[in-house]
Write a structure and sequence with these properties.
alpha+beta, 4 strands
Amino acid sequence: MDKSHTADAIDVALLRELVAHPDATNLALSEATGLARNTVRARLARYAQEEALHSFERRIDPAFLGFPLQAFIITTVKQRKLGSVSGTLAEVPEVLQVHGLSGVADLLVHVVARDADDLYRIAGRILAIEGVKRTTTGLVMGELVEYRIAQLIGATAH
């Protein structure tokens, strides 16, 4: 994403409507926000070009696909192997996301599993990657605050 652009008042209006109605058509967005259809179309195209909106893929619940367990695997890596470890992690289907960290560990790996045995297998596969020195697995027991962004859209308006 091009970090040089930040949301303006038009973006705030459009994004608020998209949060409330993510499947709205351009016409519906135009009517709800009072923006011209061409403005809506141009802004959505800019969001796509700048990768400001994440993919539809993020909306799919892994439990629906048969992966009800989620865990975070905190991973320490030999620094010169960070790139190859990240590449290998991208090949593991159960790895949803990998964040690079500073401080206590190098990577935060978000994984899903079918059950405890499957999680054990996945964690072992990650630990076996060349360059991985140590892992610690934390099972997600519940989501206490869901992913949210609407409150930031509101803060941007002020």
